[in-house]
Amino acid sequence: MTAVSSGYSFRQIALHWLVFVLVAYQWFTGDRMTDLFRAAHGGPPAAVNPGWATIHVVVGAAVLLLMVWRLGIRRSRGAPPQPEQHPALQWLASAVHVGLYLDLIGGALAGLVAWFWLPGVAGLHHLMMRPVLLVLVALHLVGALWHRFVVKDDIMTRMIRPAR
């Protein structure tokens, strides 16, 4: 069972934003990796420096480790309770958060498996996680903006200012 806290710790906030930056980097440089992946597994040579593969794999592994760390902290320290809102919105918020954890951990694992062991199925899975991630991030952002500008609560402040 997950604990409940009054707010997020500095470590939780820092990990959230560090993962955000690393995932944004992976998102905007991912096309280079697609070309390198195809070349590494029998496709046409890539017109991209092969060093990008190492960077992508290392950043992906970092995302995986940071997400597992975040999950561990969340299970031990907990998270602040959701604000009172319609049950459907509470369900959606929970589903989006679970989806983000699953996508980021599962996508990183699939990428590592695809690169080092099973390029076919794992590579396809890794690639298919990208549009799912886009939808989840968009829903996460819309939810944050909804709380900020419509509900006008301090939900966004929880991921900026650590709890005392």
UniProtKB/TrEMBL annotation:
Keywords: Cell membrane, Electron transport, Heme, Iron, Membrane, Metal-binding, Transmembrane, Transmembrane helix, Transport. The keyword tRNA-binding does not apply. It is a multi-pass membrane protein. It is found in: Cell membrane. The keyword Iron applies. Its cofactor is heme b. GO terms for cellular component: plasma membrane. Its main location: membrane. One of its GO terms (biological process) is respiratory electron transport chain. The chain crosses the membrane at residues 12-30, 50-71, 91-118, 130-151. Residues 8-161 form the Cytochrome b561 bacterial/Ni-hydrogenase domain. GO terms for molecular function: electron transfer activity; heme binding; metal ion binding. Belongs to the cytochrome b561 family. This is Cytochrome b561.
